[in-house]
Structure formats: structure tokens, C-alpha cells
Write the C-alpha cells for this entry.
Amino acid sequence: MAERLWRAFWPVLTVLLAVAAPIHAGLDAHFAPGLRAPWLLGGAAIVVVLFLDGLRRLRWPRREEALARIDARLAGRPLAALADSQATGGDDAATGALWQAHLRRMAGASRAARPVPPDLDLAAHDPFGLRLVALLVFVTAVIFASPGAAPGAGGTGARPGQTLAAGPAWEGWIEPPAYTGRPTLYLADLPEGEITLPQDARITIRLYGDGGLRIEESVSEAGEAGEPFTIARDGRIAILGEGGAEWQVLMQRDRPPAVTVPGPAETEASGRMSQPFAAGDDHGVIAGSATFTLDLPRVVRRFGLAPDPDPRPALTVDLPMPFAGDRSEIEESLIEDFSRHPLANMPVIMTLAVRDAIDQEGQSAPVEMVLPGRRFFQPVARAVIELRRDLLWSHENAARSRDLLRAIAHRPEDLFPSREAWDSLRAAIALLDEAMAEDRLAGAEAEIADALWEVALELEEGALANALARLERAQERLGQAMRDGASPEEIAELMRELREATDDWLDLLAQNAEPAPDTTDQPQSGPDNRESVTEDEIQALMDRIQELMEEGRMEEAEAFMRQLDELLRNLQMQQEEGAGGGRSGPGREQMREMQETLRGQQDLSDDAFRELQDRFNGRTPEAGEGTQGEESGEAGGEAGDQDSLAARQQALQAELDRQRAELPGLTGEAAERARESLDRAGDAMARAGEALEEDDLAGAIDHQADALTALRDGLEQLGQALAENERLGETGESYARSEDGSGRPVPERRDPLGRQTGDSGRHGGEQAMRDAPDPARRAQELLEELRRRAGERSREALELDYLERLLDLF
């Protein structure tokens, strides 16, 4: 009944509310003359029509409909079942008994019947929500109608004898500038007296009625009375008259932003720089820039730099800003590669500037520096880059640069590793000739500079890449010849080709090895340094391979070929570490010592294998044959006076245990894998020592092979862990010193949300999120790392294929 009444008469109630709302609010008093009566009569007529239509559509619910409504809520419709009668089988006793059982079950289910609540939702009958609109209008009229206003009397007007609405006869708002992030204040809620407001806050005051109120203020510039005004100075705001108020305003000035340079820039061998900076502002930094200007007095003015430089605008780049979060305190790093810029590798003065929302600017103190750029080590590439620099320095050098470039290209067979590099240089010279002939050097400068850069890059990278390709090809051909049983003459020729390719590759590695910027604490170059020892090992290995092949012992020669490949890979990694700037830090020294231990273990394994061969061949080691192992043990950091293989193995194990104990506390999956691999290496060394004491050379060699594999895995994972923790240290995840007196750095303990455990790290998570690295910069770093690894053709084919597929996604 409620549903049907509501659906039949909701239009009547809607019209009644719509007609009554303006009457209750007193708006009918403002109707045009003669409009109020038609308004009321029209509303009444509509109400009558809708009421009659509702009566016509109204149908009183029948008992059967009510029962069906209840029955629909019950499982199996038991009420309908109780009203049914047996259609067939009335004469069959079994069928009758089954029917009676069914009725008893339905009777039990019908006891769960409950009243069904009415469905008063009219959304399907009133799709435009007219009933809700009418209700909203009526409620608004009830709430905001003037007190004492009778329906039909016009409650909003001021009638004789009636006072104004209750409450203040004025109101005002204070709107701070949007960049401050402060909320709007209601002036009437502020107590009288002294208040502090931000600079440029906007104040709006409205006066109501004829109460004789007026506004006086001395905080803004001169403006029209009654208009909103802004805070420009300390002063007074007063509303004079009955019920007025007065405030003394202290203006909070917006401080200019500040920026500092906390430390020098970090550079990479590729020329990319990372310059840290810190900036702050009371309401947040909006943008910033770094400007690099040539420091001409510090330039060594000779050769191509002797002429006065051509006028060139200062180099300006934007500073990175956080995408989200608070910008009142910023600690970021400017990461750029200026290698191609004319000022690369030149003395410059760097100035950082930041700006806030009202265009106030703050600058850092000038910093003298050499703008980082890529360094070239291949002689011809270095000469091309120097001539490119001279051309960009001054167009007066154009003729000189062209002549020198022609001289370089005169005999390509002596200087250029490939025909393509020579052709590229000739094309760049042709561009320079054409620009000089047509007197348009300024317009073609960028194109010529790009062409010379590509030539130098091809010379620098192509020579090493070609030498490495030749070396890999020579190794592959020699290995195939060994497997196919080639003739001694063919093997000798392939061995000569391998030696030549190895020598060329080692020479190029030496040319490209960038010296460390500070060699005070670094080992001096000499015959006993690590790289020289590695080269000696390579030569000794190739001699041993040739000797075994001449004796027909191809399986042993293949084993030594695998060792040669590992040594070449290690040497390449050493060169890449040197190109990375010779980084040092927690764990780097231990990693170098472990590499020495790895070489010592390799030497010990070779000596054990050599002794096993001698026993198998029935030979007795002659005097002096054991000195090589002892010297190798000295190179691996072990005592050279160990007389037995077992003693040397135990000394290597003890040294590894010491190195593992001195490792810093690193975090991450790579660190865990490194620890597991080093633990396996220590266990394998222990088993090898026991086998050597029992004179089981074959078993010892197997355990030594396991130790070598675990050591290599551990070193690889340790290097990755150190790199990851160094990157974390650059983004704020710094190391903390342990308090146990050991002095070993351990990572700060944090919970899964990045907060430090204990009371001291209660707010660490919020700080970690605020100090999170720039996502765009981090994505660029990851992409560059993928490209670097994909360019290392010495990696396994499966890994290279995976890297290529990753790069295809981006």
C-alpha cells in the first residue's frame, strides 16, 4: 500500500513543495503586481489534476498479491505449494503419502515468512530527480528565510519596525596567496588584536544595512573604498561603528629562495657529470637553472686557443625539481653530459639560480670548475677532437684545422683502423671546405662539429671493438681447429694469429686505460702491478696451450683455453673499472684482495694439476719446478715460504676468511648471493685442504674447481652489491657506523616502509619518501645501464638476447 500511494501521489507532493518554497521564503512579495494570485491558482490547479490522476492510477493491493510478494522471498515458494492440490495419483497410497510429506515440508518452510519492506525508490519513475529538486528548494527556503518572516509577507525585505537579520552586520575573508598553501580565513572568527598575515594576502570586507559602518586600513596601497585590498605592509584594519572590530596586522614577508653547492661534481669516463645541489624556500622552489660561463683567465692560450674566442652565449640548463612532495627543502643532483658542448673540458664558472612563486631569485656562490667532457685516448681520435675544439673556439682556426685534418687523412693505412672511419673524416673535411668557400662557417658549425665528433667516437670505440672481435674470432677458430684435429702447421698459424690479436687488444686496452685522478694511494705502475701480472699470465697460458697442442694433448689444451678466456674477461673488467673513475669505498679494497686470492687459488690449482700429471706420467719433479707455485702464492697475497700444497691451501682459506670478515654490511639480494657464494668458496677450500693432506690430488682439484667457481660468482655478486649500495648512498640511504667498536660500516636498519627501526627512525619513512630519487632520472640511468651491458659482446648469447628484448620495449 505504501509503494502504490507513494508512486501515485509523489507528483502532487513535488508541486506542493515547489509552490510553497518561495512563499515560505517571502519571495512572493517581490513578484510583479498581479502575478501572485495566478501563481497560487495555477499551483492549486496542477495539484488537483495530479491528485485526480493519482486516484485513477491507484490500485489497492489484493491478498493474493501480498501472499505472492511474501512467497517470492521464500525458498521453493511454500505458500503457493500449500494452495496446490494433488493432480494425479490420488488413489495410490504411496503417492498420497509422498504428497503429504511434501505439504508438511512446505508448511515448515512457510514458518520463515516475514513482512516484506516497501520499495520506495522512485528513480525509475522520476529519472530527472524532480522530487529531490523540489525538496532541496523547500529545505533551503526554510533554513535561510529571515526569522519572523511570515509566509506571504516577504521575509527578506526590511519592513518598518523590523530589525536586520541576527548576527554581525559585516563579514570578511582573508585569502592567502595560492602558492602558500594556506586556507582562507573568516575575518569575524579572528580575535581582535595582533594577527600575522602573509604578504599579498587578499582581504575582502562586506558591510550590510545602513548601520553607519565604515572600513579603515593602512596595510595596502591606495585603492578605491569598498574594494578588496592586499597586504603590502604592516598596519591596521578597523571596522568602525556599532559591532565593529580592529586588528593590528604584521606582514610576513616572503623570503627569497637560496641554493648552495655542497660538494664537487662527480664525473664518469663517458663525460657525464653529477653535480649535487641543495635549495630551499619558505613556500617552495618553483624552478632553477645552472649557468656555465667560460673562465677565460684560466685558459691556457696557446695553439688553437691563442686567438680570442668567438662570442658565445653562456651554457644554461634547467635544474631538476621533484615531481611531487614538499619543495621547501630540496637536495638533488644535476646530471648532464656536456661532452659535445664547445666548453667541454674547459675552465668555467658555474652559478646556480632558483626562483620562487613570486619570481624572487636566489643564486649560489660562483664555483670554479672544469666542465666535464669525454676524454679520448686513441691518438687520432684525440687529435680530431682537439681540432674540433679549435674550430668551435674561433673561426680563425678554420684554415689551420682543415690543413691538419687533411694531414691526418693523408695516409689512412697508418692511422685508421677501418675504411669507414677514414671516409667519415673525408666527409667532414668536405663540409668544412664547402662552408669556408661559401663563407657560411657560422651556419655550418654545428653540422661540422657533429661530423668530427662521430669520427672521433668511431676511432675511439671502433679500434677496441675491432680488436676484441679479432681476438674472439681467433679464439673461436683455434678452438674449432683443436676439436677438428687440424694439422700442426694450421694450428701453429692459428696460434700466431691469436697471439697477434691478443697483443693488439692489450695495446689498445693500455691506451684507453684512464689514469686515476689521484694516484697518491694507488699502486704504482710497474712490472709487478696487477695488469702486468695478468699479461704475464696470458703469455704463459698461450705458451702452455701451444706446448700441449704440439704434444697432441688437445683436451688439456682446451681446458687452458677456457682459462685464457677467463683471464681476458677479467682484464676487460679491470679496464672497465678503471674507466669508471677508479672508485673506492667500503668493500672495494676487500674486493681487490679477493681477486688476488682468486689468482692465488688458480695458481695453486694449476700446481696441483701439474703434480698430478707428473705422477701419472711417472716423472719426479726436478729441483726448482715448485718455485712457480710459491711465487704465484706470493702474487695471491699468501706467504711464499709454504712448502706443501696443503699448507698453501690452508693459508688461502685463512686469507679468504679474513677478507670475508672485513666486508662491510651490504644490503640487497646481490649482497646475500655474494655471501652465499663466498661461504661456498670457503667450504670448498676447506675440503680441498683436507684432500691435499690425504694426498688425494684428484679430489683436491675437483674441490679447488668448485672454490674457483664460487669465488668468481661471489666477486661478480659483490661488485653488483657494492654498486647498488653506492647508488643507495647517493640517494640518501647512507651507511651508519656500527657501535660494537669494529668500525665496520653496516646499513641502517629499516622496516618495509623505509623507516628506521627503533625510536630514532620513527619519521624515517616520510623522509625517505620525500628524498626519493627523481623517477625520470632513475629511468634514464637504468636505460643507459641496459645499453652498456648490451654493448658488451663478451656476454653470453642468451643474456644479450634478453637485453636486446628489454631495449626493444623502450
Summary: Residues 158 and 706 are 101 Å apart (CA to CA). The first strand starts at residue 170 and ends at 175. Residues 379-457 form one domain. The chain has a mean pLDDT of 76.
